[in-house]
Amino acid sequence: DAKTTQPPSMDCAEGRAANLPCNHSTISGNEYVYWYRQIHSQGPQYIIHGLKNNETNEMASLIITEDRKSSTLILPHATLRDTAVYYCIVRTNQAGTALIFGKGTTLSVSS
Amino acid sequence: GAVVSQHPSRVICKSGTSVKIECRSLDFQATTMFWYRQFPKQSLMLMATSNEGSKATYEQGVEKDKFLINHASLTLSTLTVTSAHPEDSSFYICSALPGNSTNYGYTFGSGTRLTVV
Predict the structure, then answer these.
(1) b/e A77-107 (16+ beta carbons within 10 angstroms → b)
(2) For chain A, is the Cβ count within 10 Å smaller at the N or the C terminus?
(3) Which residues of A are less than 8 Å from B105 in CB distance?
(4) Predicted local distance difference test score (pLDDT) of residue B62
(5) pLDDT for residue A21 is more than 90
(6) Which DSSP string corresponds to chain B?
């Protein structure tokens, strides 16, 4: 069963912010929200993760709603290199738990 | 940061032969590694969980005798596709979890493109 729901595709103009939504209405209290991306023919790349507070790093910001049922990944200034499939994944922090990938969102950044 | 090296990046083999794919954690010890398969325009599918020093745990529908996994050390896991057939052609990706962390961004290898002819 899919734990997350994401739009299949989104477009963004270069230099603008890309806001990628994710629904995880059945998330448990001990589950984190992880975001990964996969550029064509490469392995997935870790972006960011969070539990309930908003998080920011050099790549992106993660906004998690207060009820934790949805989140948004924000790429503040999208570039052509950000074109990729973005995966939102929920998982516990239990050691040895694999990441289970859904279908993700294909983000296309154009000039 | 944590780096996972996967080799080879591409391999072409004949039907009926076996192919070995290596996954190495370069700067950390990985007690657990994961193997995924990805068909064109599809998402990653978890094949198995590899634990150092013990047998791998395979996902439902994955043939353990066809996809042999060995995790003999804390830095190396191998996936051997035995008696490969054209339908085994796919993109195989490994992922590793540092041994001292339960809450971490998993690191992925760059993937192996297997083509069986």
Answers:
(1) ebeeebbbbbbbbbbeeeeebbbbbbebbbb
(2) N
(3) 34, 46, 49
(4) 96
(5) yes
(6) ---EEEE-SEEEE-TT--EEEEEEESSS-EEEEEEEEE-TTS--EEEEEEETTS--EEPTT--TTTEEEEEEETTEEEEEE-S--GGG-EEEEEEEEETT-SS---EE---EEEEE-
pLDDT exceeds 90 at position B54: no
- For residue B101, pLDDT over 60 is answered with no
Q: How far is B62 from chain A (nearest CA, A)?
A: 16
A44 touches chain B (CB under 8 A): yes
Residues of chain A with C-beta less than 8 angstroms from the C-beta of B97: 95-96
Q: Please count the residue pairs, one from chain A and one from chain B, whose beta carbons lie less than 8 angstroms apart.
A: 56
What's the pLDDT score for residue B105? Answer: 72
Q: Would you call A95 and B49 a contact, using CB atoms and an 8 Å cutoff?
A: no
The percent of residues above 90 in pLDDT, for chain A, comes to: 86
